[in-house]
Each structure stands twice: as C-alpha cells, then as structure tokens.
Design a protein that fits this description.
Radius of gyration: 18 Å
Oligomer: single chain
CATH superfamily of the largest domain: Vaccinia Virus protein VP39
Structural class: alpha/beta
Order of helices and strands: HHHEEHEHEHEEEEHEHHEHEE
Number of strands: 12
CATH class of the largest domain: Alpha Beta
CATH architecture of the largest domain: 3-Layer(aba) Sandwich
C-alpha cells in the first residue's frame, strides 16, 4: 500500500471497527476489547503517541502495540482468524514463517498447535525487536527468531522501508514510489533454510514477504517441494503476475485454494 493512500485507509478501517458487530468480535478475542479501541485512537496518527499499548487475548496471551498496523494484523489473525483454516490437523507441526513481522502468526500457531515449532524469518530490525518481545512476553519456547530474509538465492539485498506500514517493507518497491530509505539485509536461499531445520522439511511454509514470495517459489525444485507439503502465501499483486506463481505451484504438483487474500497450496500424493 502506497504511503499517500494509507492515511485515508486508516480512517476507513477505524470507522468499520466502530460497528457493534465488530465490537462483539473483538470481545471474543480480547479480555478487554476497550483496550483495542483506546490503542486505535492513540495510534491513528503516526508518532503522536510513542508509548506502547498492550492487548490481552482471552487465553492470557499478550500483544504489544507500537504502531497502528499491528492492530490491523491482530484483527486479521485473531479476529478474522484468516490463517486458521490453513493449518494442517497434525498436533505438532514444523512451521516456517517467512515475513514474521512482529510474531503474531507464530503466536496464533502456538495457541492452536501448542507442540509446534515455528522458525521466524524477519529481516527488518524494528520488526525483529518486536518479534523478540512477542516471543518473550508469551514464553514461546518453540519459536526461533532469525533476523534474515529469504529469497531464491543467498545474497545481500536492500530492504526498502515503508514510512508508515510495518508490514510494507519490500525488496521490490514500485518504480513510482518515492522511497529513499532502506536497510541492508541478508537473504538466505529457500534450500539453505530447509537444510537448517532438524527434519530438513516443514509441514507449513507461510509466505508474506511483500513480493519476495515469487522468487522463493520460483526457486523450489520438485525435490524441495516434497519437503514442503503445504504452502500458504499472500500474493503481492503489484509486484508480479500472480498467475505465474500459481502456474509454478501447479507444475510442482500442488493444488491450490484461494480464500480472501490468501492462497493455500497442498502437494498432491
């Protein structure tokens, strides 16, 4: 999402949250839904309230809110439960979270599949610091944070920093975006990431990495695919032709289902 449209989007999103139906949904996710609305008001205008807000989920888990976009991600994962349907039924999973952001997906996996391990790749220093806080706050002993990005091949790369969206940092900014701030990051190849896992495979690969998912999937060979039976991704329509990614998944032997903004690909026997 471009910076110049983000302000109006925030306001529209906040107005939606004021509906009684939304309040009821937040009440099912949070011990005190009013904390969400207070945080929303305090964080609506960037940098006006630099202190952190705290949300407590009904199971006692806690979410530290430093930026407005954390509230949006919280709603997606814990209110809309957008990833719940993508998790395999196994009690214990090996999960790769590429684009872990502040760790809310890892927290959700810990809630639903308590015995699972989640390896979290997040290259942005500010996000990584908050990822560590999420892990520490909630005692996620099976979550392993990695301050790296993932790509098709291992290399150094520029990560362009979105000025107002902690989920919008990307190695592939659009040509007409005036982003002049970036950080140098380390990218590791998908093959190297899998090799580092204890079993050299993962039950679920989650990709939400602002365009890098295409080169990751392009780098998956049939041999690697057999070690990744399930992939969930949020395609970045502005960065590439989504159909090329879906075609590559099909060629590798995956069937896929689309629901909302997500694609779930499952390897066929």
């Amino acid at each position: 999402m471009e910076p110049d449209v983000l302000g109006s989007w925030r306001l529209s999103w906040c107005i939606k949250q004021l509906r009684l139906s939304q309040f009821r949904r937040h009440s099912k996710a949070l011990k005190n839904p009013w904390h969400f609305y207070i945080a929303m008001a305090l964080k609506l205008i960037p940098r006006t309230y630099p202190r952190r807000c705290l949300l407590q989920l009904v199971d006692g888990s806690r979410i530290c809110v430093e930026e407005f976009m954390t509230l949006f991600i919280y709603e997606e994962i814990f209110v809309d439960r957008c990833y719940d349907w993508t998790l395999p039924p196994n009690e214990t999973l090996s999960v790769l979270d590429i684009g872990a952001n502040t760790g809310l997906f890892a927290l959700r996996v810990a809630q639903l599949r308590p015995g699972s391990t989640v390896t979290c790749y997040e290259p942005m220093p500010g996000n990584f610091r908050q990822l560590l806080e999420t892990i520490e706050l909630n005692h996620l002993r099976n979550a392993t944070p990695m301050m790296k990005g993932v790509g098709g091949v291992s290399r150094r790369e520029r990560l362009y920093v979105h000025p107002r969206n902690i989920g919008g940092h990307t190695i592939l900014p659009a040509a007409d975006w005036n982003w002049n701030h970036y950080v140098d990051i380390e990218l590791v190849s998908m093959a190297a990431v899998l090799a580092e896992l204890p079993s050299a495979r993962c039950d679920l690969l989650k990709l939400d990495c602002e365009g890098a998912e295409k080169e990751i999937i392009d780098a998956i060979t049939p041999k690697l695919a057999h070690r990744i039976p399930r992939i969930v991704l949020e395609p970045s329509a502005g960065s590439y032709d989504i159909s090329t990614v879906l075609n590559k998944l099909s060629d590798l032997g995956y069937s896929y289902t689309r629901r909302g903004s997500l694609v779930l690909a499952e390897l066929q026997a």
